[in-house]
Amino acid sequence: METPLAVLVGVLFASGLYLVMQRNLLRFVFGLLLLSASVNLLIFTAGRVTRGTAPIIPEGLPTPPGDVANALPQALVLTAIVIGFGLIVFAIVLVLRTHERLGTIDTAEMAERLEAPRPVATDLEDEVPA
What is the DSSP string of 14-47? Predict the structure, then answer.
């Protein structure tokens, strides 16, 4: 079961990386979403995908009987989902504000519009103080 999941992680990660390297900010956000999902799946797969029982130790036994589910990867993935959701929402708000301010989400056009005008050299000796 881990092999198909590992292949899926690789495909999701490669797709997310491809989208992050695009010049469109919206594609960048979708790339972040795919990267977040692939890392969550990687953590979940690294913790072994098994159908185990709850990790509860019965009275009188030193360890739980049989295969038990590992709760640590599940807790890490849950935390990563919440953090990833916050990151994606923040990135979407930044893209919306950038589009409102500059009128584009293409990074090449943004760079052109954000170039500061160069200061013009003036002769200060000719000016009269006010």
Answer: HHHHHHHTSSBHHHHHHHHHHHHHHHHHHHHHHT
In this predicted model, what pLDDT tens digit does every residue of 44-64 receive, in sequence order?
A: 888 777 777 777 888 888 888
Chain-centre distance of CA 10, in angstroms? 16
The DSSP code for 68 is B
Joined together, the tokens standing for residue 88 give 């994606």
Indicate the SS3 state at residue 47: coil
This prediction has a pTM of 0.73
**2-50+71-113 fold:** Helix Hairpins (1.10.287)
Interval 63-94: pLDDT, tens: 887 777 778 888 899 999 999 999 999 999 99
The residue ranges of every structural domain in the chain are 2-50+71-113
What does the alpha-carbon distance between residue 64 and residue 73 come to, in Å, rounded to a whole number?
A: 18
